[in-house]
Design goal:
It comes from Camelina sativa. This is Alkane hydroxylase MAH1. Belongs to the cytochrome P450 family. Keywords: Heme, Iron, Membrane, Metal-binding, Monooxygenase, Oxidoreductase, Transmembrane, Transmembrane helix. The chain has 508 residues and is α+β, with helices and mostly antiparallel strands. The protein is built from 21 helices and ten strands. The protein has a five-stranded mixed β-sheet. Strands 4-10-9 form a three-stranded antiparallel β-sheet. Helix 11 packs across helix 14 and helix 14 crosses helix 18. The N and C termini lie far apart (86 Å). The N terminus is likely disordered.
Length: 508
């Protein structure tokens, strides 16, 4: 009887909410923001298909900070902010009080104890180990040679093929394959060769896409609901479980293969091996006396960290390049200026050294402008250890959720001026023609404070090398009539891809 009564009450409440919605919409022609019981969840779900632009409007009229109220007892309350003062406070000046927290780790559980999910001492130790690996001159050279080789042996032949055939191709898919192959080589030493004329589907890459979508839905569902779906195996959670199994199996193959390879080469001194030492090899060989919290003999530790590295390097750069080339298609004058800068720098003769890439000031500005408008990671999440008051005056309780919306941050007129929605590379250039620095709490695409992205320079170099190669040698034309919009996910990819035609330029 009790269960029947509960069902009747639930049906009555649902009926009331539906009736309330229909009447409200009929009378006022707009959707109510705050409802009884469910509070702001219906408005969020209704706007989910356009959540990015919706967040821009809400935050602009809310003085850059908006308290979202989810259903009571659902644990969905969060403070959404794009206020640079708040961001600086959270990410830098009061960094030790703001962690990812258990709720973040629960949502991102598929990545285990990698550097993006950990906090406090374990995170500090992991970051030190990554710094030691990524900042080695040998790894820097390995990174540059890997990108250049994949460009010449993979991307260029593929673009030549489509130029010769005259057929359309999804440029976002091409970039995804380029960055996937490159990051797999850097992470494991193995080349999946997904960047080829055959365009084969890779289950690991597909699993990364499914996880991105699933994690976003975990942010807009009550925890008990997605946990139940995960337990039963329904919807996005079923895809998440399947993706996790693929990660486990593929990473286990790479790890066991690497251990066997290292055993066979034990005692053999080969300088070329040091010059091409991948992340997995570096972690297995890590001196744990310096990093006592890291257990490099544990395959799960290795799995979590190579998976995190692949996620950080694959989707983010592919997303950035896709939006960059779409913006160029809308701004042909920018293309002309970049090409002239490349000619003036004479890269075809002098090569893609770091010194030469740093001379491409206008290209750098155009890339930063694309990252401002279309940040690859569209939101960040933090949780205070102790209650605090933000510079905006908002009080945050211990263990509450704070969301920083990077997409909206880059479009705030209060932050970037009245021309915030315009694509202007000149925004990043000083009066004397140098690169203009913007503080990270205003331009957050590479994170800020102690968590600033360790692979920032690798990512920028990769984008510059790809951009120079394509703009020098090809004309890219976006197919008319296609809908360009972002997909729902943790990475701001294009929902329908970027269909283009490519022709070779005459460089007489």
């Amino acid at each position: 009887m009790a269960s029947i009564s509960l069902l009747q009450v639930s049906v009555a409440i649902l009926g009331f909410l539906i009736l309330h919605y229909l009447l409200f919409k009929k009378l006022y022609g707009r959707f109510r923001l705050n409802w009884p019981v469910l509070r702001m969840l219906p408005a969020l779900l209704r706007a989910l298909h356009r959540i990015y632009d919706y967040s821009v409007k809400i935050l602009e009229i809310s003085n850059l900070t908006f308290p979202f109220e989810g259903p009571q007892f659902a644990g969905m309350d969060m403070l959404v902010t794009v206020d640079p003062a708040n961001i600086h406070h959270i990410m830098t000046s009061n960094f030790t009080n703001y962690i990812k927290g258990p709720a973040f780790q629960d949502v991102f559980d598929v990545f285990g104890d990698g550097i993006i999910t950990t906090d406090l001492e374990l995170w500090k130790t992991l970051r030190k180990s990554y710094q030691a690996i990524l900042h080695r001159q040998e790894f820097q050279r390995f990174s540059m040679s890997t990108m250049t080789r994949k460009l010449k042996d993979g991307l260029v032949p593929l673009l030549d093929h489509f130029a010769e055939k005259g057929t359309t191709v999804d440029l976002q898919d091409v970039f995804g394959r380029f960055t996937f192959d490159t990051i797999l080589i850097l992470a494991t030493g193995s080349d999946p060769r997904s960047l080829s004329v055959e365009m084969p589907e890779d289950e690991f890459a597909k699993a990364l896409d499914d996880v991105g979508e699933g994690i976003l839905y975990r942010h807009v569902k009550p925890r008990f609901l997605w946990k139940l779906q995960n337990w039963v195996g329904l919807g996005e959670e079923k895809k998440m479980t399947k993706a996790n199994a693929i990660f486990d199996r593929v990473c286990a193959k790479y790890i066991s293969g690497k251990r066997e390879e290292m055993k066979r080469s034990q005692g053999v001194i080969d300088k070329s091996n040091v010059e091409s030492e991948d992340i997995l090899t570096s972690f297995i060989k890590l001196d744990t006396t310096k990093y006592k919290l890291l257990n490099t003999s544990d395959d799960k530790f290795l799995r979590d960290n190579i998976l995190t590295f692949i996620l950080a390097g694959r989707d983010t750069t592919a997303s950035a390049l896709s939006w960059f080339f779409w913006l160029l298609s809308e701004n042909p004058k920018v293309v002309a200026k970049i090409r002239q800068e490349v000619i003036n720098t004479d890269l075809s003769r002098t090569g893609n050294s770091q010194e030469n890439l740093d001379k491409l000031v206008y290209l750098h500005g155009a890339l930063c402008e694309a990252l401002r408008l279309y940040p690859p990671v569209c939101f960040g999440r933090k949780s205070p250890i102790k209650s605090d008051v933000l510079p905006s005056g908002h009080k945050v309780d211990a263990n509450s959720n704070i969301v920083i919306c990077l997409y909206a941050l880059g479009r705030m007129r209060a932050v970037w001026g009245e021309d915030a929605l315009q694509f202007k590379p000149e925004r990043w250039i000083t009066e004397n023609g140098g690169m203009k620095h913007e503080p990270s709490f205003k331009f957050l695409s590479f994170n800020a404070g102690p968590r600033t992205c360790l692979g920032k320079h690798i990512a920028l170099n990769q984008m510059k090398i790809v951009a120079v190669e394509i703009l020098q040698n090809y004309d890219i034309k976006v197919v008319e009539g296609q809908k360009i919009e972002p997909v729902l996910g943790i990475i701001l990819s294009m929902k329908h891809g970027l269909r283009i035609t490519v022709t070779k330029r005459c460089l007489a």
